[in-house]
């Protein structure tokens, strides 16, 4: 059996596909990853076979110089348009791969639309990996608008629907649109960072991990986002050790950092969060699920797209606190982190969500579902 995986060039979108692709491979099937040229080196480091789907502009470049969206919903449609532009750039490459490599199934992350289009044109079965809690229908609206304007981009049938959708969120946190999704256990792939020694040694005082994910630090005020300074200055009020999980080149730009920060650089969150007491994050899919799976409470500071609903679902479960930028006046973050450290109800709720995640069907079941699609 041959399975083609497609993703846009963003780690947060691509990483969730990696454990599933490896599972298919270890079960004896042929796997090929198709990603834009400039992302191929990142994909190759997973050890999976990678083919380029073409030269596609980077998300950050496509966003550069744009005025902020007028509303949250407009922002979603605009991001959908960016993903439509990326799909248009990948379409010829992915069409060629589907025609020549002849996959039995195409599996795409939810914002990659070239894979589903190329698969539908050839009658190939397709599955989607839904990262994030919300339906993000606005992405499809924006992407369809762009692709419809491309010669040969979108037929009258519009964007094809997947035959199967995988969802790694625990059922108690999912929204109504996800009722028919196939549950799958979250397994983190966190890139190629090493596990630091302190993450496998006993800790002497509470440790707080701070991250803005892989994309936010590259958008807007890359010099050093105000959100980070607000968090770090507030944490000075607490007797805690701070570690910052961020790409190494960004960490170098952010120096110097307060003495309280014991580490700043890319950290494998799945191994590091069990060695932390609280996560302060942005509500990104992989980051949030990894903290939940580790049973760690979190303070969520979402900015856009799925981050807002992901954070809302965690807050509703009792495993965390969501704060919007306008709510983070001096002392508020320290107070929230103090509550997450001291009130055992947050940790207890995070532990129950972790148990729910652990009870989801293993990736091997998802691989069987993919094979059944082809059959
Ligand atoms: P995600 O949390 O979805 O957020 P975003 O798309 O905004 O980046 O994806 C980030 C992934 O990268 C997630 O799997 C966690 C991982 N990550 C680390 O493991 N360590 C790090 O230092 C950073 C910055 C990210």
UniProtKB/TrEMBL annotation:
Residues 230-373 form the Erythromycin biosynthesis protein CIII-like C-terminal domain. Gene3D superfamilies: Glycogen Phosphorylase B. Keywords: Glycosyltransferase, Transferase. It holds the Pfam family EryCIII-like_C. Residues 91-213 form the Erythromycin biosynthesis protein CIII-like N-terminal domain. Belongs to the glycosyltransferase 28 family. This is Nucleotide disphospho-sugar-binding domain-containing protein. It comes from Actinacidiphila polyblastidii.
